Amino acid sequence: MNLVPALFGGLLMIGVLSCGKANDTNQGPAVQPSASASVVPQPYALGAPQGPPVVAELTHAPAVPKPTQRKAPAKVVVNLEVREVELPISDGVTYTFWTFGGQVPGKFIRVRQGDTVEFHLRNHPDSKMPHNIDLHAVTGPGGGAASSFTAPGHESQFTFKVLNQGLYVYHCATAPVGMHIANGMYGLILVEPPEGLPPVDREYYVMQGDFYTVGKYREKGLAQFDMQKGIDEKPTYVVFNGSENSLVGDKAITAKAGETVRLYVGNGGPNLVSSFHVIGEIFDKVFPEGGTRIQENVQTTLVPAGGSAIVEFRVDVPGTYVIVDHSIFRTFHKGALGMLKVEGPEAKDIYSGKEVDSVYLSDMAAPGAAVVAAAKGAEQGNLTKDQQIAAGKALYQGTCSTCHKEEGTGVEKAFPPLAKSDFLMQDKTRSIQIVLNGLNGEVVVNGTKFNSVMPPWSHLTDDAIANILTYVRNSWGNSGDAVTTAEVAKVRKDTPRPPGAGH
Ligand SMILES: [Cu+2]
Fold first, then answer.
1. Rounded to whole angstroms, how far apart are CA atoms 428 and 413?
2. What's the gap in Å between 132 CA and the centre of ligand 1?
3. What's the gap in Å between 172 CA and the centre of ligand 1?
4. What does the pLDDT profile of the chain (503 residues) look like in tens digits?
């Protein structure tokens, strides 16, 4: 966080308040001029479009178009094409997304307050469904929806003047609306104030959405939409930018120590409200709900479904910052995890610690290529033991490794070893039962007694458990045969489980 100006601003506030002069300056130096400008929109004062029409630059997340840098209102042409496309939502899992521009979220649109937007919505000929668009930045019934109903292979056009500055969601509003939004039909349009936003070093576009599939979380193959789960508000996935891998590994967003980062955060929903948080950072400034007022020194900001927030912070300490929805099961069990990687010299005066814990990175830390390869092998019926071991290794990290350690050594007096464990290797079916159902009571591993509790991992898919156990049974001095998905499925079926204990 940007400590000095924030503190200075705070002191100034105290000074002002104690003098009883509420009016002359209620904003410290941390607040930029634009923050106080245009609280009341003055649309008509901005006047008619000037100059030749401008074609808007549109970007896929996490990129953001350049500032407009216009000093006068313009006519802006926006060309957006709806496409229905099959894309990954997780490792080895695809989903048929309905998109504004070919990806989820839809392309980012950036205009200036007072602009007149000529909107062209195309629906690709391969689409199966009609679609339309409701932009929350539009003043007028339906936000454009009524004027933009577009059948496959068609185009519609409508024009609107952007009266209010702010960060707005747009979405499809074709019935059943919930289904169109649940399939990924949303994006953001930023309406800059007339004088523009204060410059920052990095700007990124992050948009959360909840997804509803017939299968479980990470069940391999093409996941089908589940309408009932949508109605019940029980998502299978909650992700940023349309996939649980969109902001991790090589795709993490980046910055250098000392830079200021601005995130345009949206929430498409359709159902959930996001408790948006960056682990290890404090938002120096937030424009809550994408509006004009500034809140300072915020840990977690609420982003409503169909709403937004702009957050800004200075990064001081290098390392990996994990972006989450702090309704935290969504992060570690539904996919709402992204990363910001900050490079630069260490800043030991601010933070002495080690790199972010594997606890926070979970199995997201390792790229999922091995998991995808194993899923492909399984699908084609030629899955090899080596593929299972490689996938199991990636999945073991951050799940089992938390207790049993990366090299399977366990922790003395607390967690038994898996490396060269006689107990593990004695009985394959029992080892599957342990992972699915957990374990408690006394066990003796290699002559040492343990009496503790291992939680059940029944929320993992059968293939994930099969791959993890194949890895464990063939690592660190163990050697055994592979564990198959069918073997895990059989144990799961044969185990009666109380309601709520897992799938
Ligand atoms: Cu639609």
1. 24
2. 6
3. 5
4. 444 333 333 333 333 333 333 333 333 333 344 444 444 455 555 788 999 999 999 999 999 999 999 999 999 999 999 999 999 999 899 999 999 999 999 999 999 999 999 999 999 999 999 999 999 999 888 777 778 889 999 999 999 999 999 999 999 999 899 999 999 999 999 999 999 999 999 999 999 999 999 999 999 999 999 999 999 999 999 999 999 999 998 899 999 999 999 999 999 999 999 999 999 999 999 999 999 999 999 999 999 999 999 999 999 999 999 999 999 999 999 999 999 999 988 777 777 765 554 555 555 555 578 888 998 999 899 999 999 999 999 899 878 988 899 999 998 888 999 999 999 999 999 999 999 989 989 999 999 999 988 888 888 899 999 999 999 999 999 999 999 999 999 999 988 765 554 44
Short-list 463, 389, 466, 455, CA closest to 431: 466
Rounded to the nearest angstrom, the distance between the alpha carbon of 62 and the centre of ligand 1 is 22
451 DSSP β-pair partners: 442
171 Cα to the center of ligand 1, angstroms: 8
Q: Tell me the sheet residues that pair with 223.
A: 95
153 CA to middle of ligand 1, Å?
Answer: 14
Tell me: cis bond preceding 499? Omega within 30 of 0 counts. no
SS3 228: helix
98 Cα: distance to centroid of ligand 1 (angstroms):
7
CA proximity to 256, closest of 192, 340, 162: 340
Q: How far is CA 345 from the centre of its chain?
A: 28
User: Could you tell me the distance, in angstroms and rounded to a whole number, from the CA of residue 458 to the centre of ligand 1?
Assistant: 35
Tell me the CA–centroid distance for residue 197 and ligand 1, in Å.
Answer: 32
Residue 109 exposed, middle or buried by CB count within 10 Å (0-12, 13-18, 19+): buried
